[in-house]
Amino acid sequence: MSLGLDFLYRTIPGRVLLKILAGRSLSKLAGIFLDSPLSKPLIKPFVQSNGIDLSECESTNFRCFNDCFTRKLKSELRPVDMAADHLISPCDGLLSVWPVEEDTVLPVKQSSYTISGLLQSRRLAEEFRGGTCLVFRLCVNHYHRYCYPDSGTKGENVFIPGKLHTVRPVALREYPVFTENCREYTILDTDHFGKVAQIEVGAMLVGKILNHHGKWPVRRGQEKGYFLYGGSTIILLLQKDAAVIDPEILEACGKGKEVPVRFGQRIGHR
């Protein structure tokens, strides 16, 4: 996989092919196939190659590959920290934490990007000046359902069309992936952490970002939605001084490492 991505993102022939692979048309075709019963033969090799334990699922009556990919786990396997002053992870994934300096996020060993570019709004970006950007990168073996990090009221879902690059580090170094890829965001007015932007970012061969709710009151740990096939990313934007991220996470991220976290797990406090 690594050699293939190096070819796509670091060679001229690869970049020509990348224009096709990162386009939404191919993703839509892949999504149609993975939603059909014709994709069922892919389930067994996918489960075996990624070490997925199907006994953790609420149901294994999969009609198609995407039924397996979006499998729902038994609730006791993803307990949600309900302490009001604890900030929780909205998903399983690999977490990176970056400061927002003015309008810009400055990651280690990756391309920088702006909050105004991410949200396509200078007005909204201004509200997160000096805040914190939490990036949760989901690989194909991760649980691809996600939740709300706190109770409160959510705004409407805003979809921003774009490309569909992979979210692996090789792509993040070469392209401003988060501001080029398809994404959907909502603004949460939370009970304990102020205004939070929750952004779901699509990736190569991700057929769909499916969010359940429009503008409505929501609960901490309530399922917000899920990604269909492919690696993906969730980004949380916090306002200045809204939360303190746990020191062991900050220490690892300061060394350029991604920290494995789980849906509902504490990652910081008010």
What this model shows, in words?
This protein has 270 residues and is α+β, with helices and mostly antiparallel strands. It folds into two domains: 2-69, no CATH class; 80-269, Glucose Permease (Domain IIA) (Distorted Sandwich), CATH 2.70.70. It has ten helices and 17 strands. The protein has helices spanning 2-10, 12-21, 24-34, 43-49, 65-69, 115-119, 122-126, 169-174, 177-180, 247-254; strands at residues 86-88, 93-101, 104-105, 113-114, 132-138, 145-147, 152-154, 158-160, 183-190, 195-201, 209-211, 216-218, 223-227, 232-238, 244-245, 259-261, 266-269. Strands 2, 3, 4, 5, 7, 8, 9, 10, 12, 14 and 16 form an eleven-stranded antiparallel beta sheet that branches. A hairpin with a 7-residue loop joins strand 3 and strand 4 (113-114). The longest helix has 11 residues, at 24-34. It is globular and about 50 Å long. GO terms for molecular function: phosphatidylserine decarboxylase activity. Keywords: Decarboxylase, Lyase, Pyruvate, Zymogen. This is Phosphatidylserine decarboxylase.
